Amino acid sequence: MSQRKPRTRAEARQAAAAEAASSRSGGRRATASASPSTGRRWLRRGLWAVLGLGILGLLGLGVAYATTDIPAPNEIATAQASIVYYADGKTEMARLSDSEGNRESVPLSTVPEHMQKAMLAAEDQDFYQNQGISPTGIARAVWVAVKGGQATQGGSTITQQYVKNYFLTSDRTIERKAREILIAVKIDQQQTKDEILENYLNTIYYGRGAYGIQTAAKAYFNKDVSKLTVAESAFLAAVIRGPSLYDPGLGEEQVANAQERSGYILDAMVEQGWLSQADRDAATFPDTFVKYKPRSQGGTTGYLVEMVKDELVTKHKISESDIDRGGLRVTSTIERPKQAAMQKAIKDERPAEDDVSVGMASVKPGDGAIVALYGGSDYAKRQQNAATQDKMQAGSTFKIFTLIAALQTGDVSLRSRYDGSSPQYFEEFASPGADSATERRGRVKNFGNESFGRIDLRRATGSSVNTVYAALNIEAGPEKSMKAAEDAGVRSPLEPNMANVLGTDYVTVMDMVSAYATIAAEGVRAEPYIVQEIGFQDEGVAPITVEPQTQQVFDKDLMSDVIDAMTYPVEGGTARYVGRNLGRPAAGKTGTSESFRSAWFDGYVPQLATAVGLYRSGEDGEELAMEDLPESGDITGGTYPTRIWTAFMEDALEGVDVEQFPEPANINKDAAPPPPPTRTQAPQPAEPTNAPPPTTSAPPATPTPSETETEKEPEPEPEPSKTNGNPNPGGPKPTGTIEPVAPEDD
């Protein structure tokens, strides 16, 4: 049938439009019909690519498995002791070994069934079912590594642990982890499960220098392994996680850890059907441990060695077993000439009294490397570090943090002048609930009740004027003073009470040297560290090189003004002994606590910060006054601490270029004069009261200083009264209130 032709031009146009529309529609249909075919082709290609990669991966894994040999056992007899070197990387400081090959192998048949099951409950409950590895554990370890954790963290079965301890070196690379997995699979194919468990029990480290279950049974319970009880077995299975954390011979914290871990293991044995509930209930924590005193390096070096070991474990996650026998080569940050200079300075300049303790530390500003440290005379006799663990009241060294806080407000400059008269009565310093007119409530005075008139903050810092700094802390706020201390690097717990400006808080020498180093570095805080490099027994494994952990926490201009103010104690102030003898620009601050219970000098040059603290304690650890001593008289920050500090720095800086401090920026120089705080110049008559006198039965809400006096070297320095006193440096604070007495100052 023939198609009718359009009769008119309009019909022709309509016909053309319809044809075009039909063509477009057909084109879309054609395109749409082609899309599924194209998508399927790409899907097939993707699947083939994934399959190809999978085949290549399997082939690669197969090749790796076939070419991975089981190495010769790394026997304890051939293990190498780890060595600690001084900062030069050549001079040996000490060898880290507690075992000297202390191991005795026994057959699995002599190990009680409950000892075997306790180990499985603790470390690998699927041991007899798995193929030597845990895929889920490996996946977790890989995920941790992807997120930035240790390459070998987690994921280890008993077979893998056995391989690591018996066959491989202690390096912590992904390559070693991969070899561990492949060898574990091979071992699982070539040895029975009982053989693997026997070898594991005979090689794992249990602490106390004991390798293997037989030696461990004797080290902890003085018995043969075959005689172990269920509770003793659970403990030995617990202690391998970290002997320093679970050995009851090391302290109450370890006892608590061991009890908790042992309980978990016993409960797991019940859940697995390996122990009846009745036997579980009868398995009480052992009380038959052999008394143990860990071997340690003696003398002053012992404190350094313990710090190195602690940092390897806590910061670098290296096991105690690896430290003991892994052949590590550890380079410390301790510079031997500076360490010798520190020990000599303390020996030559310290007080004659034996019951006066000295803690001292020196670090690189802006880096954090500890170049010298004195924690005591003999670690073998006293295992508490006077520089990192013992705590003393900060005294007037804390005033610098209030200066920082005040300058940060923007309303105070070094040119700001305050009333330095003495005494002054500050309502903010009065005890809560006390009659503010009572004479000894809220009174602050300078040493010898000396008045200075109106005085700027430079001179107030140089002469350690308590009345000025009391007013400054009212203006800045004790919370901000505390925050400035924490930002600078003080890590001991602090309290935001109004008296903190006068040094009521207890801090360590390491706290103060770190904080003052931040100032010396113009506001760059650096975390202190003592390990700078860790080398491994396998020379093919790259050493771990420690990078300083730093952060700019204060503005440079702010720090330039703080540094400027801190030169005033040295240049004619309470620490003028330093300025007269050091022969180069230095800055710092003295401090002496109430009743001379602690004395400080903390200072720095641009390249080196050093803090020294002295305290005296009795046989029971209670604080004793360093006042009117038979040989040394009154010990203040301006006496023995400054002399020890100067003697050390003279030697430590020999040959070191003289550097100048930055010019002060004089921030906030246009700030308005501060308003006078609430105070009076003389006590007002007290209202009659029938209230009982103060007792020591309940602590006040806020520590209360009373009479505080300022330093005039060699006289004592103004410090807070003992309101949060600690009769045991490094120990717990007493809970009772102590009625404030007039603290002296340096």
Automatic annotation (TrEMBL):
The chain crosses the membrane at residues 47-66. Residues 1-37, 664-746 are annotated as: Disordered. Keywords: Carboxypeptidase, Glycosyltransferase, Hydrolase, Membrane, Multifunctional enzyme, Protease, Transferase, Transmembrane, Transmembrane helix. This is Penicillin-insensitive transglycosylase. Residues 93-269 form the Glycosyl transferase family domain. Residues 690-703 have a biased composition (Pro residues). Residues 364-607 form the Penicillin-binding protein transpeptidase domain. It comes from Fodinibacter luteus. It catalyses: [GlcNAc-(1->4)-Mur2Ac(oyl-L-Ala-gamma-D-Glu-L-Lys-D-Ala-D-Ala)](n)-di-trans,octa-cis-undecaprenyl diphosphate + beta-D-GlcNAc-(1->4)-Mur2Ac(oyl-L-Ala-gamma-D-Glu-L-Lys-D-Ala-D-Ala)-di-trans,octa-cis-undecaprenyl diphosphate = [GlcNAc-(1->4)-Mur2Ac(oyl-L-Ala-gamma-D-Glu-L-Lys-D-Ala-D-Ala)](n+1)-di-trans,octa-cis-undecaprenyl diphosphate + di-trans,octa-cis-undecaprenyl diphosphate + H(+); Preferential cleavage: (Ac)2-L-Lys-D-Ala-|-D-Ala. Also transpeptidation of peptidyl-alanyl moieties that are N-acyl substituents of D-alanine. Residues 13-37, 679-689 have a biased composition (Low complexity). The lineage of its organism: Bacteria, Bacillati, Actinomycetota, Actinomycetes, Micrococcales.
